[in-house]
From TrEMBL:
Protein name stated in the entry: BTB/POZ domain-containing protein DOT3 isoform B
Basic residues: compositionally biased ranges: 580-589
UniProt family annotation: Belongs to the NPH3 family.
Organism: Glycine soja
Domain BTB stretches: 14-83
Pathway(s) per entry: Protein modification; protein ubiquitination
Coiled-coil zones: 495-536
Amino acid sequence: MSNQVWFIAPQIPTDFSIQVQETTYNVHKYPLISKCGYIGRLEIQPLISNSGNVLNLENFPGGSETFETILKFCYGLPIDFSPDNIAALRCASEFLEMTEELEDGNLISKSEAFLTFVVLSSWKDTITVLKSSENLSPWAENLQIVRRCCDSIAWKASKDELTSEDAAPNQESWWFNDVAAFRIDHFMRIISAIRAKGTKPETIGKCIMQYAKRWLPGMEVELEGLRGYGHEKCNLQFSIFSGKKKESSGNSKEQRTIIESLISIIPPQQDAVSCKFMLQLLKMAMMYSVSPALTTDLEKRVSLVLEDAEVSDLLIPRYQNGDQGKTVICMTNSSEECTMLDIDVVQRIVEYFLMHEQQQIQQQQKTRKFNISRLLDNYLAEIARDPNLSITKFQVFAELLPENTRSYDDGLYRAIDTYLKTQPSLTEHDRKRLCKIMNCEKLSLDACLHAAQNERLPLRTVVQVLFSEQVKMRAAMHEKEPAQIGIQSEQEENQTSATMDIKALKAELENVKSQMVELQNDYCELQQEYEKLSNKPKNSSGWSLNWRKIKNSLHTKPAGVEIGDRQDAPKSPNTILRRLNPRRRLSMS
């Protein structure tokens, strides 16, 4: 215990002792009574005596450090106001009743003026004052220090939101980290004030997610921290290791309070926070045994955005108790319903989702087409690996969705096949019961080929798959037949046209050959006539001239004469072949 002695002058002894926390102050009576109404009201005369009795100020706001500053003020010494000490000085002056009735310019009025005109006009100073007010309850609440700081922060944050509407949608505001540093009750006060200013729900949601990331580190734990399945049924042990020391019960209560508070202040709009965040918050709520009413409310909120979920988000462990750091799930010799994952909570979420969709259909509201069949089939394939999952639970979950929701049953077939692998000792009756869930007609051709060779399926299911496969192949063949008939008819038409062209070409070629034979005969006759006439010398010159003309007509084409100009004259072989094919030339010797 340390003692502080204050003297106005060395020759004046102290006549009053005050204890604050573990420190005792030997002071003078008059300076304190003249400015502190609380000390003046007390009947302290019996205490102020040579016997050395001490006035104990219990629960003094700000502690001994703040009381020393007030002693300086009472003795007329200068003091410095700052954002770090102004809240404590304001509360302590109210505790000691340092009003204007005792002295003008007393500590209440001076600290209030500094708080109102200096601190609340600055963002940084307001954050500092509100942070220091966390240890000043209930004085800071009663003096409206917390409310005024929260309103000032909300006003500045909402003003920044209005001036930064063109910012990127995924960009965090600059004030998120400052607001996320507060205690949960002050954080809720700020969020309520910000919401009252008309701030966008998306902005409030991002701030809430930032706060949870800072104060709930367990939200980041995924299935990588899970120790897997046991090897035998009813002998399943599962643990979560967060890598931290075991938390105290007080810290556990604080975590539960934070989770419950965050659930209660999430904006009602669907796009305020992500589905992944709400499912992570739901895992924490299950871990810390949050009140059932808030858990149910969170499950309904998740069901509204279930389409945005991923399979890993739905893998919620089944917690046996609320221990932190290490949670043992499903100890040995447990019931068959003790699975590693909490399937019941996911089943409730899906049921809420279907109820919501049915209500919108009945109200004839325009709804977007939903399709969560792939999500649930993948989830079903994950839980099918659990050896403690009963066939009844598997069947009930698989039949949650209406039949017309699934376009294909490939995902459902994969889940059933996974369950059959995990449960090799299933009876034939249970296998048939399990395979009745899927519609073989909705299996793709690849799934049919796989199922037809799957030895784990019952014989009846294999027969149905083979029949469905034949129907699909027959339908595929029928779809191809019209196209094939069209191609064949086109090919036949092309082949007929080509045959006719060949026949015409052969006929013309035969005609050319016959004309060539006639010309050769004429040539031979003229040759013989020429040889006869060549023996007569009288008319040799005239016959010789005529013969040249005839010979030239056989070997050369007259210039400027078209084939069509002489219909009666015999056509030469070269001319006829040029008409049939201009590229071919026939040479005659």
